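Case study 2.
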Amino acid sequence: MKRRDPKLPKMANYGRKAFKKAVARVIEDHHRTGDPIAVWRDGKVVLVPVGIIGSATVILLLTFVLFLG
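Prediction:
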């Protein structure tokens, strides 16, 4: 189990964990249904077909959303 970030309050860590789980579920749902995933790129919304998105891209998206966003 990962340790929580000591710089954040306990509730913020719970929120971050819940958000990560929600994003993973949405990506899984889009893979199952074949719907494109909307991402923000260069100031615009871009629809990325699920066939292009591999596990490395998913990890990159989650990292950006959770740690940089």
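The mean pLDDT is 75.
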